[in-house]
Amino acid sequence: MTTAHPAYAQLRQVTPIAAVMLENNPGMMTLDGTNTWILRAPGREECVVVDPGDADEDHLLRVAAVGPVALTLITHRHGDHTGGVERFAALTGSPVRSVDPRFRRHTDAGLPDGELIEEVGLAIRVLRTPGHTKDSTSFVIEGEGSVLTGDTILGRGTTVLDASDGDLGDYLASLRALIDLGSGRAALPGHGPELPDLQVVAQQYLSHREERLDQVRAALEVLGADAGPRAVVEHVYSDVDQSLWPVAEQSVRVQLEYLRR
């Protein structure tokens, strides 16, 4: 029987190239946990790891054991994706590449948009997709066509934009860039289950964001142009469980910044 999501502490093959090890760190922001992706070309022993996860020794040891690891890539800076970088680099000796230089190990290389990374029989295209965070990056597995989306696209629910450096304008542009990749590409997210068609879900995300923007605009007409995030949340999200309002407030703050430029 094929193993399905969620499956902790085991390597689950998702596509001919991509397998996932789900970290046991579930939560409001991580859903079932962080997906650590292991990419391996058919017939090759070495692999590329995307997002080693948090500083969870058991998880890091399990991921390191599937190696040898030729390269580690980071989708974005959040600790549930990067907390284990230092330990993982020590365990594997793998160079770690990221947009944010704080997480680079054994290399000074970043992740320039459009670069084709050719490693251990794999061809991985870098697609910068800022918005969730400024450094957010997706990776296109050339040939197979699947896309590792980090937290730009999740396996379920919607993405919260980081209030410190998230940007809605960037995020809308990133969603359009993912849509432009075309149909039929599997989405391999940072959290939640894989999705069969990235274009479909990215279009749903874009439509949802545009609807929310319209709701915020309408709220400002009622509340006044200077209304704060909390007032807008209480108006727009009145039908949502109030335990989720702090997360909604973070999203509204980013939306207001976008509308008030």
Automatic annotation (TrEMBL):
Top-level division of the source organism's lineage: Bacteria
Alphabetized InterPro entries for the sequence: Beta-lactamase_class-B_CS (IPR001018), LACTB2_WH (IPR041516), Metallo-B-lactamas (IPR001279), RibonucZ/Hydroxyglut_hydro (IPR036866), Sec-metab_biosynth-thioest (IPR050662), WH-like_DNA-bd_sf (IPR036388)
Pfam families, A to Z: Lactamase_B (PF00753), WHD_BLACT (PF17778)
Residue stretches making up the Metallo-beta-lactamase domain: 33-191
Transmembrane spans: none
SMART domains per the UniProt record, alphabetical: Lactamase_B
Cofactor: Zn(2+)
Keyword tags: Hydrolase, Metal-binding, Zinc
The protein's name: MBL fold metallo-hydrolase
